Each structure stands twice: as C-alpha cells, then as structure tokens.
Amino acid sequence: MIHLRFLPAFLIASSLCCGVFADTVTLKTGEVIEGKVTSESDTQLTLELKLSGGITDSRTVSKADVLSIAKVQPDELAWAPLKALKPGTTSLPAAFYETATQSLRGFLAQFATSPFAADAQKALAALEEEKTRVDAGEIKIDDRWLTKEEAQRERYQIAASVNFQLMKDQTSRGDLSGALNTFDGIEKQYPGSRIYPEAVDLARRALAAFQPDLVSRIQAIRAAAAERDKAVQNSSAAQKAELKAALDKEHAAEAALFADAQRRNSKWPPFIARSEKSLMATATKVPEEVRRLAAIDVAKIRQSLKAGDESKLALAGDNFFSALGSAKEALSLWPENEFAKRLQEEIKTSQAAAIAAAAEAAEEKKRIAAEEQKRLDAEEKEKAAQAAKEAAAAARTAAAAAAAKPSIAPPPKEKPFLLTATGAASVVGLIGLLGVGIGAYRKLKGRSPESID
C-alpha cells in the first residue's frame, strides 16, 4: 500500500479542529472576536483565540466594552469541526479515516438525539466504506478509484493531486497564505505533474484576491492600533500593564509562528490576521510572485499534456511509431512532463516486447511448419510401406491360389490342313482336275471354226 507521506500532517489536524472556536463577541467599537469563551466573571470575559498553525492565544475583554455575545449549543459546537469529515474526490491515508471515524462515533455517543446525528451517521458509514478500500491498497483520485498496482505506477501524480486538493481546500477557507505555500511545495516536489497548470491558475487567482485583502487588513490593523493606543493612554497603570502583557504574549506567539515557518522553509510567511508584520511580509512578496506566474506558459504545458494523452492512445493500439513521436513532442513542449517521460520508457519497453514476441511467434510458426512437414512425410512413407505390403500380400495370395489349382495338359497342337493326308489328297485332286481342264481347252482351241460349225 502506498503511504501518502506527502500529505501534510496538519490537513488531518485542521479537519478536526477548525470551527471549534465558535463563540462570537461583538465589541461596542464594532470589532468582532471569534473564539471560545473559557471563563467569565461579572466584569470580564476571557476568550481562547486560534491564531495559525495550531497555535492559540487568549484575550480578556471588559464586559463594559461588549455589545453582544453569541454562544453556540454544545452539540453544534461539537459538530462544527466534524461536519467536513466526509469522503471527498480524493482518498486520504488510513490514519485519517481512523481518526475521523473515532471522532464521529464519539459525537454520536454523546449527542445521540442531536439534529446533526443523522448526518454524523451517514458520514461515518461513508468513511468506513472508503477506509475498507484504502486498507486494500486502492486510492481515489478525482472520484476515480485506482487499484493497488495502478496506484503504485501513478504515485507521483497521486501525490501532486492530493496536494492540489489541499491547496483548493485552503483557498476555499480563505487561507491564501497556506494555499500559496502548498503551491510552492507542488512546484518543488511535483513540477511535472498533470495538475501543475491548474495549480498555477489557482495560485494566480489566489494572488489576485490576496493583494487587495492584505491592503484592507493592514489599514484596519493600523486603525485598530491607533484606537488601542488612545485607550492605553486613558487607562490606569494596572490596565496598561495588562494590555502590555497581552501585546507581549501576542508578539511572542507571532515570533514562534515565524520561527516555525522558517524551520519548515516556507516560501510565504505565516498569515496572522492581527499582525501588521505578518501582513506586510506577505504583501511585499505578492507582486514578484504575480510577475513570475504570469510568465509561465500554461497553454504550452496543456499542449504537452494533450500530446502525452495522444501518445498513450497510440500505444494502446500498438502504434509504437506514432506513440513515440507524440511522447517526444510532449517533452519538447514541456520537458518536466513526468507522464510523458514515463510513457516514453513504457513505449520502448512495449516495443521491445512486441518485437521479441513477433520473433518468438515466427520461430513457433516455423517449428510448427517443420513438425507438420515431418508428419506429412511420415504419413507418405507409411502409405508407401503399406502399399508395398499390400502388393506383396496380393502376390503371395495369387501365387498360393495358382499353386492350389490342378495341372491340365494343353490340347495337342493341330497340323496345317495341307499337311494332313486329307489336305494332301485334296491338293492332288485339284491338280488333276486342273490338268484335265487345261487339256480340254487346248483341244478346243486347236479346232478350226468351220469344224466347229
């Protein structure tokens, strides 16, 4: 099974903790404080505030300065961080499902009759079903499940997709600094991923929204600081000391966040909404990043991806020449294209395998033809031998039949008729008659005509 080490650990934590600080205190000055009321007296409120990166702070306000307090019900407060726990378009590591399902079971055990219980039960069943598939080694990307083998081949693209999903989630929550840091991670670790052009587009939109937001926040912070300075001047020594301690605590938390960002080698400084230092550090980086991203030829990258897809189709049809040509085109358009690089190697391997298979098939065909000829020759030889055997048997049979017949003397050969006594007598008789005839003729010829008359 592929372990998604690339998934930032704070993704799971943020899913479980965001929205916990749900109490809203509105001051008479118009300032709105969102946090969790941890203690309350007749004169003061103490709230726990979430700053960034899991770091919290506390703030105490005078009830005299409070316009209104809105508190949520216990089940609503408990459900707030859990309502986002449901399967998304991309699956997550098994650890996430374990943590999420335990949290949902805990909610159902504590708030069985809550109006959110049905949603919690539905989310629990969906997560348990998805966890079963993840445990088997499958991974879901953009609502498409990949087998364990496919996931292993596509681990680079999967990692990039999961980080891009995180970037989108951060953008939708308004955590633009976090989204830009995630984009920086994509550029460093997965610069040849298929989602890179979409990530560039999203980063451009985030920067476009970030710049005016930073300006307005900085202006608001400066106005609030001016109001605070006035309040400090009119405060008692005890209140001044209290405010100074609160500011010192804020500055210490701010310094810790900056140090943590530096340790993680974050491109963008931590985003602290109440810190002018944080906002200014972010604002100074925005213009340069806008120019850099504008120079990226996203259209060319998409052409490269299209050529890679055409190469894959050609490979599926065993058209290796076309597949290799499209893969080379994809890499010429965008040399970082990881899919095209991998496909190029796959084409070469498949082509070599096809050639070897063709050679093996030719040899097999040749072997089969030789065996067939050998069989035919053997059949002809066997037929000839059988015919000779049958002829010999017939001769033996005829000889045996001839030997079995009785011996009969041939009839005596008759003499010619003239050589027999009868024949000789006949000849003599004929000669005699002939002589008589001739004599008579001569007599008749010797007589004169007159004597005849």
Characterise this structure.
Helix 8 packs antiparallel against helix 11 and helix 12 runs parallel beside helix 14. The chain is rod-shaped. The protein is built from 16 helices and seven strands. It has four domains: 85 residues, no CATH class; 49 residues; 130 residues, no CATH class; 72 residues. The N terminus is likely disordered. The chain is 66% helix and 9% strand. It is an alpha+beta fold and 453 residues long.
Quick tags:
single chain; 453 residues; alpha+beta; 4 domains; five-stranded antiparallel beta sheet; two-stranded antiparallel sheet; disordered N terminus
In short:
With 453 residues, the protein is of the alpha+beta class. The chain contains 16 helices and seven strands.
Q: What is the H-and-E element order?
A: HEEEEEHHHEEHHHHHHHHHHHH
- Tell me the total number of β-strands: 7
Overall geometry? rod-shaped
Structural class: alpha+beta
Q: What is the strand arrangement across the widest sheet? A: 4-3-2-1-5
Largest sheet: 5 strands, antiparallel
> What percentage of the residues does DSSP assign to strands (E)?
5-15%
How far is it from the N-terminal to the C-terminal residue, by CA?
158 Å
Poorly predicted runs of 5 or more residues: 1-20
Cα Rg: 56 Å
